[in-house]
TrEMBL record:
Pfam (any one): CstA
Organism: Mediterraneibacter gnavus (strain CC55_001C)
Family: Belongs to the peptide transporter carbon starvation (CstA) (TC 2.A.114) family.
Membrane topology type: Multi-pass membrane protein
The entry's keywords: Cell membrane, Membrane, Transmembrane, Transmembrane helix
InterPro entries tied to this protein: CstA, CstA_N
Protein name: CstA N-terminal domain-containing protein
Subcellular location: Cell membrane
Transmembrane portions of the chain: 74-97, 128-152, 167-184, 191-213, 233-251, 271-290, 328-349, 370-389, 395-416, 423-442, 454-472
Main location: membrane
Length: 481
């Protein structure tokens, strides 16, 4: 329990200390923001700071810091360290720069931002990566809530069409179409802050439930400083890929431009982008603690956690909520867990629309132009929604962290051009390169070559990426001679 509180204090302190260092390095100023300069009434709309924060939190969170953190708990309390330090030194940095670089470039999509600083080849890679990732995320965040709604109806003894996952999947996709199509302030700006608060209350309820039940004890990191995974999955780099949204997530960089288009001042970035990531890290820490506390047995984590996770994210979340909060708490938590992923899913499809619009230069103020992109995107989502969820999630996890890696290298090049401390982003970029490349060589759904090949290959490639970056920083100096 002490480890949990130490990590919680580190996360809060990280926001005020390291987050301020990140902000001072970027140096926001009083220039006119895209929301003020463009203000098209559809995607560029000024919103107050508190609303920006809650919408950003809801956009980047969904089931990510909940289900990913619970899966991470299979490794034991050592996952607390990745959530804590990953959030402070990687996730918060990634989210801040992805949002602020978009803001500095008229709120453009992250793929276009990467093209500005890393060249056209990387821009095209990021375009494809972004659209694929966003459609997968939107689909994942439709299937999960649909399953949870069905679970609730079945628990209540209700059958028929209301207990059909297919029915609710199509209902959610229909909502996605509406939210993706209309202006950002009509639904997202009005009701999302309420659900953002609900997400926070749900996490608070879970941790209070743990502390008020004597049978639940959060294990200490120093007593379990090794992998406790029942299947023997290695910490490096599978755990780092699995937790994803609770520490760092490339998906966030696709969402940050949405709020970059709605900021009145650059100085709001620290609270909106870095702050929302820290809040997500706290939520992930709580759910990881729940996974460790509720299912731990003598000798390590039992298959109880892996068994409940095998039944799907809906069953796992329902089990934790029912054990920690009981009736009223479960009702509140279930509403939050149903709504929050849906609200991340619709902004995923909205971001995909904007990426395609920037890619093909399709102006979005007219209904017909937005319709041109919304229909095929939601059609693709409907198809993917009928695939095996676990397979979609695996590919999402690797694609997600690879995107984060590329965005951090983009921020590094920006800082180099601005003659600022690029090591602030180059170090986490190198680390995430090692994580992503190691997983690519190790995972069965990728090359499946095992740790003997994956470990050295990941490290060598990460070192190679760093060498390429450092070489690129030397080229202008040589050309000037």
């Amino acid at each position: 329990m002490i480890s949990f509180f130490l990590c919680l204090l580190l996360l809060i302190g990280g926001y005020f200390v390291y987050g301020k260092i990140v902000e001072n390095t970027f140096a926001p100023d009083d220039r006119e923001t895209p929301a003020v300069k463009i203000n098209d009434g559809v995607d560029y709309v000024v919103m107050p700071q508190w609303k920006l924060f809650l919408v950003q939190l809801l956009n980047i969170a969904g089931l990510g810091p909940i289900f990913g953190a619970m899966q991470g708990a299979l490794w034991g309390p050592i996952v607390f360290l990745w959530i804590t330090f990953g959030t402070i030194f990687a996730g918060g940095v990634h989210d801040y720069f992805s949002g602020m670089l978009s803001e500095r470039n008229n709120g453009t999509s992250i793929s276009e931002v990467c093209g500005i600083y890393l060249g056209n080849a990387m821009k095209n890679v990021m375009r494809v990566f972004s659209v694929v990732l966003l459609v997968m995320v939107g689909t994942v965040f439709a299937v999960g809530p649909a399953g949870l709604i069905v679970t609730l109806f079945k628990e209540g003894g209700i059958g028929g069409i209301l207990a059909s996952t297919e029915f609710w999947l199509w209902i959610i996709l229909a909502y996605y179409f509406i939210a993706t199509f209309i202006s950002i302030d009509k639904i997202i700006g009005r009701i999302y802050p309420v659900f953002g608060i609900c997400l926070i209350i749900m996490a608070v309820g879970v941790i209070i439930g743990i502390f008020t039940h004597s049978e639940f004890v959060i294990p200490e990191i120093w007593n379990n400083f090794s992998s406790m995974h029942p299947d023997g999955a290695p910490i490096w780099s599978v755990m780092f890929i699995t937790v994803a949204c609770g520490a760092i997530s490339g998906f966030h960089s696709t969402q940050s431009p949405l709020m970059a288009r709605c900021m009145k001042s650059e100085r709001q970035g620290h609270f909106v982008f870095y702050g929302a990531m820290v809040a997500e890290g706290v939520i992930a820490l709580i759910w990881a603690a729940a996974g460790c506390a509720l299912y731990e047995v003598t000798g390590g984590l039992s298959t109880g956690l892996s068994a409940i996770l095998a039944n799907g994210q809906s069953a796992a979340i329902y089990d934790v909520c029912s054990k920690t909060m009981g009736g009223i708490g479960v009702a509140l938590a279930m509403i939050g867990v149903i709504v929050c992923p849906i609200t991340s899913g619709d902004t995923a499809f909205r971001s995909a629309r904007l990426v395609l619009a920037d890619w093909f230069k399709i102006e979005q103020s007219k209904y017909s132009k937005r319709l041109l992109l919304c229909v095929p995107l939601l059609g693709a989502g409907a198809i993917i929604g009928h695939l095996d969820y676990t397979i979609v999630w695996r590919y999402f996890s690797w694609t997600n962290q690879t995107l984060a890696m590329i965005v951090l290298w983009t921020a590094s090049m920006y800082l180099f051009r601005e003659k600022k401390n690029y090591w602030l982003t180059a170090v986490p970029a190198t680390f995430m390169s090692a994580v992503s490349m190691t997983y690519f060589f190790y995972a069965k759904e990728c090359l499946g070559l095992g740790t003997a090949v994956a470990y050295p290959a990941g490290i060598i490639l990460a070192a190679g990426f760093l060498a390429i970056f450092l070489y690129a920083t030397r080229k202008p100096a040589k050309a000037a001679k």
